[in-house]
Amino acid sequence: MHQQAEGALLTNPNDINSYEVLVQVLAAGLDYYQQAGDEQQTGLLANELKEVPLKLAEQQAKINPDRLWYGAPLRLTSEAQYSIAQANYLLGNYAESLTIFQTASPDLFKEAANENIPQPVLEEFAWYAASLHKTGATIEAENIAQQLKSLDTQAYSTYEKLIKQEPLQYSARNDNEDY
User: Fold this and answer.
1) 13: how many CB neighbours lie within 10 A of its CB?
2) 149 contacts 156 by C-beta, under 8 angstroms
3) Residue 15 half-sphere exposure, CB side, CA atoms within 13 Å?
4) Helix/strand/coil (H, E, C) string of 36-103?
């Protein structure tokens, strides 16, 4: 699946859907390996995931601004950016993670978490709060954490786990390996 997503990106580098699918595949693999406790594979996938914006930026630089553009803009969705922010967090790039969260949906995290917010978004609040905590904004992080505690024990548990987590330790992949 990973190779197919990479192949789609190579054959359609001007289609944002190719980048979105790649992010989804990498994020699903990252989640699987993280739950399985495989730090090596989690680290490898997190590293690949954090590189997707660089691939996108390289392609954007190749586009001639004087030519009419027919496709969807080469801009990742908030959901894809959240996955990339999570990968950065797991790798210990807390400031980068926080910046991505803040720019992906600038208005979302300005509001207080409340009972009308769906559970997956509350999980993003947990990651955002953990990023705040790791970058020294502990008061703001704790305020969000207390909101999560009263709204969703799973999201609060995610926050608690994340603030205790150390950056992933893994060795670089040999390009001949497949996972």
Assistant:
1) 17
2) yes
3) 12
4) HCCHHHHHHHHHHHHHHHHHHHHHHHHCCCCCCCCCCCCCCCHHHHHHHHHHHHHCCCHHHHHHHHHH
Residue 123 tokens, joined: 């999980």
Q: Structure tokens of 128?
A: 């955002």
- Specify the pTM: 0.89
Token pair 């959901």 is at which residue?
79
Q: Which amino acid is at 98?
A: L
Tokens read off for 124: 């993003």
Task: Check: CB of residue 155 under 8 Å from CB of residue 123.
Answer: yes
Dump pLDDT digits (tens) for 81-105.
999 999 999 999 999 999 999 998 8
| CA angle at 52 for the pair 51 and 58, rounded to the nearest 5° | 95
Q: Choose among 91, 78, 77, 10: nearest CA to 48.
A: 91
